[in-house]
Amino acid sequence: MDVVIRKSTEDAVNFAARLLADAIKCKPDIVLGLATGRTMENLYGRLVTMHKNDKLDFSLARSFNLDEYVGLPAEHPGSYRFYMSRYLHNHVNIDKRNTFLPNGMAEDLAAECCAYEKRIKSVGGIDLQLLGIGRSGHIGFNEPLSALTSRTRPVVLTATTIAENSTLFDNPADMPRRAITMGVGTIMDCRRLILLATGESKAEIIAKAVEGPVSSRVTASVVQLHQNCTVICDEAAASQLEEREYCQWVFDNDPMWDPYR
Ligand code: F6R
Question: What's the rounded Cα separation, in Å, for the pair 19 and 69?
Answer without folding.
Answer: 28
